[in-house]
Amino acid sequence: MSLLKTLLHGRPDGLRARLRGGGGAPPAPAPFAPAPIVTANRASPPEAAEKALGLNFEAPKDVNPPDGYEVVLHKDALPEGQIIEIIIGGTAIAVAKSGGMHYALSNTCPHAGGPLGDGKLAGNIVTCPYHGWKFDVTTGTCPTQPSVQVRTYKVQVVGSAVCVEL
Predict the structure, then answer these.
(1) Are 133 and 160 within one domain?
(2) Based on the domain organization, do 75 and 152 belong to the same domain?
(3) Cβ pair 153, 164 in contact under 8 A
(4) How distant, in Å, are the alpha carbons of 35, 36, 44, 45, 75 from that of 40?
(5) What is the DSSP-derived secondary structure letter of residue 118?
(6) Collapsing DSSP states into helix, strand and coil, what is residue 61?
(7) Which residues of 90-109 are buried (b: 16+ CB within 10 A; e: fewer)?
(8) Residue from 160, 158, 159 nearest 69 by CA
(9) CATH number at residue 66
(10) Residue 49 and residue 35 in one domain
(11) d(CA 85, CA 94)
């Protein structure tokens, strides 16, 4: 049941908990109750996320990305040592900032489908929030099992925009 709860509500200290404003674990739903549908009158989800985290993810609109690339966020929007999930062109990616550089990789852990964008970033290593699998954001390789990888994407900073090749 705890895996289902984590899938529906996220980790107690994760992004979804911070967006809810509690930071703690959500109340357990009644047995066999469907998950609630959130329809609060508030800003759109990206704007709510930005406000809750104190970040500005407004991607620059005056930047022409290179061919095959998409603008995903402002170069200063993501603090050093952070990782977030971004859905761009119908693809969920995790964008990380480590050592002053931006990196992009698949948001899905190959072990159990965990959202890497909700994971913890320490140096160049992101830890999946579900079962603790680790991946190097620069190469996508699992340090303990080099045969296991997640897809990485090329990143270019053009002007004030972080652009990812999809």
Answers:
(1) yes
(2) yes
(3) yes
(4) 15, 11, 10, 10, 30
(5) G
(6) coil
(7) eeebbbbbbeeebbbbbbbb
(8) 158
(9) 2.102.10.10
(10) no
(11) 4
List the one residue out of 106, 128, 142 whose CA is nearest residue 6. 128
Residues 19 and 49 in one domain: no
* pTM beyond cutoff 0.90: no
Residue pair 70/154 in contact (Cβ under 8 Å)? The answer is no
* Beta-bridge partners for 136: 125
Q: How many CA atoms lie within 13 A of 130 on its CB side?
A: 17
The tens-digit pLDDT sequence of the chain (166 residues) is 455 566 566 666 666 666 666 554 445 544 544 444 443 433 444 555 555 555 555 788 888 999 999 999 999 999 999 999 999 888 999 999 999 999 999 999 999 899 999 999 999 999 999 999 999 999 999 999 999 999 999 999 999 999 999 8
**Count of domains in the chain?**
2
- Strands of 134-136's sheet in order across: 120-122, 125-127, 134-136
Same domain, 60 and 77: yes
Same-domain status, 34 and 103: no
Which element (helix H / strand E) includes 74?
Answer: strand 69-74
Does 111 lie in the same domain as 33? no
Domain with 62, as residue range(s), is 44-165
